[in-house]
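Table S4 entry, Putative 4-hydroxy-4-methyl-2-oxoglutarate aldolase.
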Amino acid sequence: MTQICRLHPATDLPEPDLLDRFTKLASSLVSDVFDRWSGATGVMPLAGVADDQVIAAPAVTVRTRPGDNLVVHQALEEARPGEMIVIDGRGHLDRALLGALMVTYAKRRDLAGIVVDGAVRDIADLRQIGLPVFAAGVTHLGPYKNGPGELRCRVSIGGVPCDDGDIIVGDVDGVAVVPRARAAEIVELAEAKAAAEQAEFEAIDDDRWDRTWLAEALRVEEVH
Ligand SMILES: O=C([O-])CC(=O)C(=O)O
Ligand SMILES: [Mg+2]
């Protein structure tokens, strides 16, 4: 039986230079300069992300019925090399939305990785495959394939809105979502924050880290 899969048109891919600049920044820097607002919660790196690695890639968004991956299979066909599939499974952890077969295929198609607000399975194999996979959990229970779903639409990932073509910045701390229209501004602010943090590390080493703000921020009550 034919199932509904709403498919919106693809966006232009971002400049490789812009993505390259994001790969030199931690996800924490990106979410910090975004008013500590853009980080998805509960979506963690489960496979294929090294300690010193930052992945920055445009999102192919997928909204699926929780526990059903029909439209995720269609996303594997639609996604272009270098794109990151971002699946809104509404955080349900009772059925895996993908496993080793699908991740092997995604790697074969040169995708940048997969983010799932939901569960995955075959985790030992996923670690071997090496494609970055961020997810909210793991279960052996498999998905149904009945639909419906939607591709390249607005989704929610760990409580954060994500539009198709937004830039996903992922590392061992998790995933930040950068709206496409603000990417140039955010990368510049995050680079400045990286430089400021570097100066703070040097100040700690030299024992001259400014702590004066603490006394101003804190009202101390002595307890006797
Ligand atoms: O069966 C499925 O649809 C998901 C899965 O385990 C795989 O991709 O290996
Ligand atoms: Mg499997």
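The chain has a mean pLDDT of 95.
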